[in-house]
Amino acid sequence: MLTVSTVLLAIYTWKLVDETRKMRGEQIRPNISVYFEHAETDPTLMFIVVENNGHGTAYDLKFHP
Question: Is residue 18 part of a domain?
Fold first, then answer.
C-alpha cells in the first residue's frame, strides 16, 4: 500500500512540476503585435504601432522587409 501511494504521489508531483514550468514560460514570454492606426486629427496620417501584450520583456527586436 505504501509503495502504491508513493508511486502515485511521484506521478502527481511530476505533473505539477511540468505544469509549473509551462506557466513560468508563459509568464516570461513576450507577445508582439504590429498594426496600423489612423491619427485622430488627420485621417490620411497613419502610425505603425509596435505593442508588447505579453508579460515578458521583448529584447532584440528585428524587422526584416
Answer: yes
Does a structural domain hold residue 60?
A: no
The C-alpha atoms of residue 6 and residue 17 are separated, in whole angstroms, by: 16
Given phi > 0 = left and psi -120 to 50 = alpha, else beta, which region is 53? alpha
From CA 3, how far away is CA 56, in angstroms rounded? 42
Per the structure, the count of domains in the chain is 1
- pTM tops 0.70: no
> Tell me: the pLDDT tens digits for 50-65?
999 888 888 888 888 7
Distance (Å, whole) CA 60 – CA 65 = 16
* Mean pLDDT calculated for residue range 42-47: 90
What is the C-alpha to C-alpha distance for residues 32 and 60, in angstroms, rounded to an integer?
Answer: 12
